[in-house]
Amino acid sequence: MSKEKCIVAVSGGLDSCITTAIANLDYELALAHINYGQRTQSRELKSFNDIADFYNVKERLIIDFTHLAKIGGSSLTDKNIEVAAADLLNEEVPNSYVPFRNANILTACVSWAEVIGASAIFMGAVEEDSSGYPDCRPSFFSAFQKVVEEGTKPSTHIEIKTPIIDMKKSEIILKGLELEAPLHLTWSCYKNEDKACGECDSCALRLRGFQQIGEEDPIPYVVRPNYI
Question: pTM higher than 0.90 for the full model?
Fold first, then answer.
């Protein structure tokens, strides 16, 4: 019996890779990637294609959302805004937040899902262990689910799934190791494309997760501070 099809939004990072591994258990995969003018765009795209190759995914969608770079407002898309050093105790929305990015990503995935008949869209959003982005909260995805139901054909039924949203980074990594996800192919750094800086929020969250479970992060770093 053939599996239903799903779309996974894959940035090329750790969370989206492990979300792909989870989706692969029950669905036929189609993978989507958004280039939006981020500092590490070419490196993330490489990771996306490497992950897609690993899972032998033929259906891939790569979209250039150049409007997000033109809008700016984020240190990821505006090089005049410095990427802040990691502050894992910060409770404010960090300057790496790309305004309403996840909604932009989801709209593209929903459009594609209607065309290819996918019944689910997976996104590797994480609330508790992420940097406080407002579009990573469960309430955001619940609200967007209603938008999908209101704005698609009556015959369309697409469920938005965020299987790791309530997990800590260490738990996510353990799940990835359990599923033998290709963590060595991923890229999370906000600043660099050759060796991860080890000092931005994304690197810090990732390194801390590996350190908490006593595992070595398989990607190269300029520095590997101790975050626990």
Answer: yes
